[in-house]
Write a structure and sequence with these properties.
The complex is a heterodimer of chains A (365) and B (360). Chain A has 365 residues and is mostly helical. Chain A contains 15 helices and four strands. Helices cover 69% and strands 2% of the residues of chain A. By secondary structure, chain B is an all-alpha fold. Chain B is globular. The chains are: A mainly alpha (365), B mainly alpha (360).
């Protein structure tokens, strides 16, 4: 009895998500102690929540491909591509807001599907294909902007509904006399919907299980009748869809669509899922962990900015956090191994972070 | 390595040289020649003038060096996202020490190279001690070093007037060929010889080709990984030296656009991404192609984003064509069932063994 209690206690300690939550609370408390205005709802918490909403979607876009053991280095560029199409839809085609959003998201879906198709068809490493894709888009998007935008370098049309999504917070939603917090933007509903749908897919649907199986052992999956090629395409397609959605969300939140959207997405896209415990090697995902990981990095980013650390020096901290998080993962694995062999409840601690073989990039394991 | 600008003549000599070249290098050399010819024709001969050839070769040095830096990490199956960050950090550190702390310029150049080595060594050490994926480690160190680079120089530009002796190296051109291009060529020859004839080079390839077999033959894979990252960092340091020598100033933007050429050169040059093979000549020729695209962009005064677009498309095209070609050869070989020709290096058969059964 005592043993099982201790084990459970250890389980909580070893659970990355509980640790993340504790860290988020700790960091927020530390920053609030240094700068009491950290909890100002309008000026700090609202932008922070907006950031978390957008970057959680970015993280999930990466998580979906990580689940099959691939990578998507083009998340940022697909985001800018999708945002560009939404901008075109608003500015040149004068489409209504939600139709324009759908156009942008579908553009991302198409790019993701192309990456996935090339990877599945040729068997080339996902790293190279998405890297090449990102370079191609990195060239294409600014070129299109310079063609289509006559004055300035951004699409700035604001169709009806866009400002609402940008400005409104939960304070604008009232049930009787009770209103929500002014610190939470309504955009968080999009993120919540994405999180619920993706969690549902991975935990309850056949497609989700097949994606995870493809990630954990592609030959076994193939032999059990899973069309792994098609699953690879689906994962990249979904990743493209979500990346473009994040790009459109960022465009909406800043009020203009520029070629610079997505240029900052690469590192956060990996930070969120990895801090949250998603394996690089595929086969395990954690949507809630991705959210918490993103929240932690956003809290640290905002807090450091408030304590006067320059934007560029933030990079040093974010890089260190990534390294520390992964070392901690490794350490946890060593600790559990030392604690003695026993059945472990979850795959993340039983499968080591792959890095043992030098050939570790992407699918060809 | 002298195929780039050889005038027509002595056909037998060229044929002999072609036969000695690795198969992938022939089409690359032809593309280089065609590209140079195209540029010469569209610029009505301007491209072949001494001045523009000088500029072409001078700025060819950097893509060659960073392409080789990436190739070395690819040879053990790792990769180095921090190529640009290491180069930028090393050049800014050296520039700052020379300009503000009175370090003699030549010592500064040494500092640049050593800083690159140290950063690469740190990368390798983190990879082997934590067993974290090399991609993520170098992503993290890239972010850190970019931040450090900004911390060092901030928004200022350190003018090269502080290191005139180094700038003289950048301008020197014995017999009309820029000295820094010759340095890059010398480095390529050294890397090529190192992989062919030294124990360390063979060990890197063995670890990259088949880690388990290498381990069983008494090779330390950890050592190979650290050595590869350190060598890669050293070459980034040399690239930082070249930047110091050839650019009018160093600032925080140096290294920011190195990532694409560093991957484009080895991938187009035919280096396998799973490790176990290198192609120095191919990488150098592919660097020439990258440089030609850049020169073409300048010729037609297009936006810089065009270079990314074209190179991205070329890289994608190369990997697809390469893979399809490889699979066709495999199918043919399997049908004929004859012993594989000499061209099929161990690395190649190794790679095919890794192919996903799903795609076979």
């Amino acid at each position: 009895m005592k043993d099982s209690l201790a084990r459970r206690g250890q389980g909580i300690l070893l659970n990355p998500r509980a640790g993340l939550l504790a860290l988020i609370i700790l960091m927020a408390a530390v920053f609030a102690a240094i700068r009491p205005e950290f909890f100002s709802p309008r000026f700090v918490l609202l932008p922070l929540m907006m950031n978390i909403s957008i970057f959680t979607v970015v993280g999930i876009a990466q998580m979906v491909v990580l689940s099959i053991g691939h990578m998507n280095l083009a998340v940022g560029q697909i985001a800018s591509f999708g945002a560009m199409f939404s901008g075109i839809a608003f500015d040149l085609w004068h489409l209504p807001f939600y139709v324009g959003v759908a156009v942008g998201v579908l553009a991302g879906t198409a790019v993701g599907a192309i990456s996935g198709w090339v990877i599945a068809r040729t068997g080339v490493n996902s790293f190279v294909v998405t890297l090449a894709m990102s370079f191609a888009l990195l060239g294409l998007v600014p070129t299109v902007y310079s063609w289509l935008v006559t004055n300035g370098s951004a699409f700035t049309s604001k169709p009806a509904g866009m400002e609402d999504l940008r400005r409104n917070t939960l304070a604008d939603l009232c049930v009787g006399d009770i209103c929500g917090s002014p610190a939470v933007p309504q955009m968080i509903f999009i993120t919540a919907a994405v999180m619920i749908l993706v969690s549902y897919m991975y935990s309850r649907t056949r497609l989700g299980r097949e994606l995870l199986m493809t990630g954990s052992n592609i030959s076994a999956s193939e032999l059990s009748g899973i069309p792994t090629g098609r699953r690879v395409i689906v994962a990249h397609l979904l990743s493209g869809t979500l990346a473009a959605l994040a790009g459109v969300m960022l465009g909406v939140s800043t009020g203009s669509f520029t070629a610079a959207i997505g240029s900052e997405f690469m590192l956060p896209s990996f930070l969120g899922p990895i801090l949250g415990g998603t394996l690089l090697a595929g086969g395990f995902v954690s949507v809630a962990g991705t959210f918490l990981g993103t929240a932690l990095t956003s809290v640290i980013r905002t807090g450091l900015q408030m304590t006067g650390v320059g934007v560029e020096s933030l990079n040093i901290f974010l890089g260190l956090i990534l390294l520390l998080a992964l070392s901690a993962h490794r350490l946890r694995h060593l600790l559990t191994a030392l604690a003695g062999p026993r059945k472990r409840p979850r795959p993340p601690s039983s499968a080591p972070v792959r890095g043992d073989a030098p050939n570790e990039v992407g699918a060809s394991r | 390595m002298t195929i780039t600008s050889r005038p027509p003549g002595a056909t037998t000599k060229i044929q002999g040289a072609l036969r000695r070249m690795p198969p992938a290098a022939v089409p690359l050399a032809l593309i280089c020649l065609a590209g140079a010819g195209f540029l010469a024709a569209t610029s009505s001969g301007d491209f072949l003038s001494a001045n523009s050839l000088h500029a072409f070769l001078q700025y060819l040095s950097l893509p060659i060096l960073i392409g080789l830096a990436q190739m070395i990490t690819l040879s053990v199956g790792q990769l180095n996202l921090a190529v640009g960050a290491i180069g930028g950090f090393a050049s800014c550190l050296a520039g700052l020490l020379i300009a503000d702390y009175g370090l003699p310029p030549w010592l500064g150049a040494l500092v640049a190279v050593l800083a690159g080595s140290a950063a690469g060594f740190a990368n390798g050490l983190i990879v082997v001690t934590t067993r974290i994926n090399g991609f993520i480690v170098t992503l993290a160190t890239m972010t850190i070093l970019t931040g450090v680079q900004y911390g060092l120089v901030g928004t200022r530009s350190i003018s090269s007037s502080a290191w005139r002796p180094l700038a003289a190296v950048g301008d020197a051109a014995p017999a009309g060929v820029p000295l820094i291009f010759l340095i890059a060529l010398a480095v390529s020859v050294l890397v090529s010889l190192g992989f062919k004839h030294t124990l360390q080079g063979r060990q890197l390839l063995a670890s990259g080709g088949n880690a388990l077999a290498a381990e069983l033959s008494g090779i330390s894979n950890n050592r190979s990984i650290v050595a590869a990252h350190m060598l890669s960092g050293t070459l980034c340091g040399v690239a930082a030296f070249v930047s110091l020598a050839s650019l009018p100033a160093v600032n925080q933007s140096i290294g920011g656009d190195w990532l694409l050429p560093s991957f484009a050169a080895p991938i187009i040059g035919g280096v396998s991404l799973v490790g176990g093979s290198v192609a120095v000549l191919g990488t150098v020729l592919a660097a020439v192609i990258v440089r030609l695209v850049d020169a073409g962009r300048a010729e037609f005064s297009l936006a810089t984003s065009w270079v990314n677009l074209v190179i991205g498309a070329v890289v994608l095209g190369t990997v697809i064509i390469g893979r399809l070609d490889e699979r066709r050869t495999h199918a043919r070989r399997a049908r004929i069932a004859e012993p594989s020709p000499v061209g099929g290096t161990p690395a190649r058969s190794n790679e095919s063994a890794r192919e996903n059964p799903g795609e076979a």
